[in-house]
Amino acid sequence: MSRFEVRKAVIPAAGMGTRFLPATKASPKEMLPLVDKPLIQYAVEEAVASGIEDIIIITGRGKRAIEDHFDRSVELEEILKGSGKAHLLSQMRHISSLANFCYVRQTEALGLGHAVLCAQRLIGDEPFAVMLGDEIIDAPVPGLAQLIHAYKKRHGAILGVQEVPHQDVNRYGIVSSRTIAAGLHRVEDLVEKPAPEEAPSNLAVIGRYVLPPEIFSILRKTRPGKNGEIQLTDALRELAKKSPMHALEVQGQRYDAGDKLGFLIATVEFALNNPSLGPAFGDYLQNRIRPSGGRRTTRARKG
Ligand code: UTP
């Protein structure tokens, strides 16, 4: 194996999901369904399509449903087999065979940086990916695959970025960088959630990273920053001082599904693109938003 092979991905899923309360009071945000699949399954599928074999999910209290989702459900399989639902049965089995899953419990939500640090023993001394499960990237070439491709050429940390409207920079980690090729930037510094007038650019980090194992020793020394949390951004700033770091503009449509409005937008888009639901849902939407005079219809529920 080349030492630049990226085989493992960490999906931190131990956050509190406060932007989505009360839905996330007793259920993990990562299990919110986007049409018919939980958010975290989209991230896992993107990882697998990018060549990842081992997936390390950082969980916390109240997140058991995530483990159950990627495990086999023998009773359900028996029922589906008995009722001749072969297609659903193979879909259910496929979920548990997507990758090798490992779980690490973050006992306290001490921040994204701390969550990544929890994976250190399972990652060891190799490069790895970090994926935030509530960022959905819909792209012909999976978002993470784009980063891994860049990593194989550049070998330092690669951050996935996209341009965001200037007034929205205060919701993201923003990079200060210099462009070195189309869509590729050398990172000089990062700022977490800057005020628009202080932002060095409008290139926002979008929840996809390929990182070298050196990040762990930096994370261990990182003090709590904004909100008293150990911030991954603070550790990345230190790493950028020591070794080359690049930001790659990820090609594809990104949705912030950890936010209520972003989640609704993603739901509409994925539903419209769904082959079995799209046409009927599109008709419904057109009917629903027709200017005054248009009649609204309600689809009858099947009884
Ligand atoms: P966010 O801040 O977006 O997620 O963290 P959150 O804390 O769950 O949600 P809000 O902001 O309160 O609504 C980014 C990612 O890092 C994980 C979260 O699960 C999310 O996927 N995270 C965050 C952890 O795993 N542990 C933490 O201590 C903090």
- Give the tally of structural domains: 1
Radius of gyration: 20 Å
In what range is the share of β-strand residues? 15-25%
Q: Quickly count the helices.
A: 11
Q: Could you list the spans in which at least 5 consecutive residues all have pLDDT below 50?
A: none
The biggest beta sheet is recorded as: 9 strands, mixed
* Straight-line distance between termini: 56 Å
Could you say which structural class the secondary elements and strand pairing correspond to?
A: alpha/beta
Proportion in helices: 25-40%
At the fold tier of CATH, the topology name is: Spore Coat Polysaccharide Biosynthesis Protein SpsA, Chain A
Q: CATH superfamily assignment?
A: Spore Coat Polysaccharide Biosynthesis Protein SpsA, Chain A
What is the approximate shape?
globular
Helix/strand order: EEEHEHHHEHHEEHEEEEHHEEHH
CATH architectural arrangement: Alpha-Beta Complex
What ligands can be seen in this structure?
uridine 5'-triphosphate
β-strand number = 13
Under the CATH scheme, which class? Alpha Beta
Q: What's the rounded overall pLDDT mean?
A: 93
Placed side by side, the strands forming the largest sheet appear as 5-4-1-6-11-8-12-10-9
